[in-house]
Amino acid sequence: MSKTVFEKSIRSRPVYGELQPRPGTAHLCVADGEGAEAVCDLFAKAGADAAAMLAKTHIIYVPGPTGTDLFGRLEALGAAQCHRSPSFWAAESRLRKVLADAHMGLQVYLAGTETLIGLAQRDVMEAGLPHDAVQTEHRGSLSRRVQCVHCKGITENVTTDPYTCSHCGLNLFVRDHYSRRLAAFQGVNIDAEDPGTVPPAVERFK
Fold first, then answer.
1. What is the reported pLDDT for 2?
2. Whole-angstrom Cα distance, residue 113 to residue 140?
3. Separation of alpha carbons 184 and 202, rounded Å
4. Which run of H or E residues covers position 106?
5. d(CA 51, CA 206)
């Protein structure tokens, strides 16, 4: 899948780059779905240094929200450690352990959906790693993790705007405002002043 190009938006909306190999004492790659392609591209860019880099690399992979599973391609790279989990939540304890045991010089590469990148980045920041040790690249689904600002419930993999909160049932407009603490976009009631007047849902985050 081609690299994603996002329209300009408000400052809180995350901006993603393109993974580039960097010198480091160890390398941690966390990816989901099509993010595996970004990781493969990363090591292709490393060229003759790829083997040495892979010998110090730990890969954590989760299938994407649409079912894309490219774990076989990551396994074929031959990294020192390559682990597949059914979900981010199942992988999170491993991620936190790797971060807790990390030494100075660890390079972190996050690739895939905004949800995966946001949740993993939150764990990386909580572990105290510097911002410049983390790279991100979006690939795959544009579905969003959205918090209802009214009931605080979070709905995963939102693809339409507006959508119905899975917790309180309100009709919500999906804003670009993003909370790094929650790793979620914000959803605001769209028919508060005129209940029941809701525009048709449009698939904006396929």
1. 46
2. 6
3. 20
4. strand 106-112
5. 36
Element (H, E) at 45: helix 35-46
* Spans in the chain with pLDDT lower than 70: 1-3, 5
Query: What's the CA gap between 2 and 110, in Å, rounded?
Result: 17
Q: Which of 97, 66, 88, 61 is nearest to 76 (CA)?
A: 61
- What are the angstrom distances between the C-alpha of 97 and each of 14, 26, 100, 105? 26, 14, 5, 16
Q: What are the tokens at 175?
A: 């804003």
- Work out the number of other CB atoms within 10 angstroms of the CB of residue 141: 24
pLDDT of residue 167: 96
Is residue 123 a contact partner of residue 95, using CB atoms and an 8 Å limit? yes
Contact 20, 135 (CB under 8 A): yes
